[in-house]
Structure formats: C-alpha cells, structure tokens
Amino acid sequence: MATKIFVNLPVKDLNKSVEFFNKLGYNFNPQFSDENAKSLVITEDIIVMLLTEPFFKNFTKKEIIDAGKNTETIISLSADSRAEVDEKLNKAIAAGATTPNDPIEMEGMYGRSFDDLDGHHWEYMYMDMSAVNQ
C-alpha cells in the first residue's frame, strides 16, 4: 500500500472553504466529512482535512496560528505543465485567493503560489525533468 498523507488545516468557515476548493475543481469524500471536518481529495494518496478551528483544537495543545499573518507550512503540489500551473492559479484567484509572491522561474522549474481564504500558503510547481537533470 502506498503511503498516504493527510494534511490537517484549521479553517474559520468550513462551508466557504468547501466552496473555494470546489471552484478549484477538487472533490470531497463524504465518508470522512461532517459538520466539523471535510475531507478534501487532492489525489488518491493526498488528502487535506479541513477542520473547523474549534474541532482542530481537539488535536493540539498549541495555539492555532493566524495563517494570514504567519506561515508554518507551504503546501506544494506538482503540475504537469506551465499551463496547468497558470490554470490552477487563475481558478484560485477567481475563487478569492490572494497571490503573496511573484511566479518562481528557475532552471527547468516554474511555480506560482496563492493563499487560500484562511491564509494557508499553497503552490503549484511544474518541473521539466529534462532541464532539471542537466
């Protein structure tokens, strides 16, 4: 069995977050969703659990950071082309995301980032492996 990753993110308004990620083309697994949590399916092996802030607090004794002011993680997802990176970012912006950084252009790499409605930092990266390997 392949290793799966479950990223847990606190959100202020679960319904708005679901609407946002639906606009990006993602689906949710109802089997692992309720009024406190929604299971956002990125791929079969990458699941993001969007948790209401009060529910999220059940899993940690630490304070929840304000992701609009602080960055604790960057969720980086691969894309198959530069065009897909731009398509994903355009959907995110249309859904209400903000763009905190300029596009990333490096030898064989292209990426763009956005902050979701709660300020969580996401990015899509395309890597041309033929250029990276040289």
From TrEMBL:
<dbReference type="InterPro" id="IPR053863">
    <property type="entry name" value="Glyoxy/Ble-like_N"/>
</dbReference>
<dbReference type="InterPro" id="IPR037523">
    <property type="entry name" value="VOC_core"/>
</dbReference>
<feature type="domain" description="VOC">
    <location>
        <begin position="3"/>
        <end position="127"/>
    </location>
</feature>
<protein>
    <submittedName>
        <fullName>VOC family protein</fullName>
    </submittedName>
</protein>
<dbReference type="Pfam" id="PF22677">
    <property type="entry name" value="Ble-like_N"/>
</dbReference>
<dbReference type="InterPro" id="IPR029068">
    <property type="entry name" value="Glyas_Bleomycin-R_OHBP_Dase"/>
</dbReference>
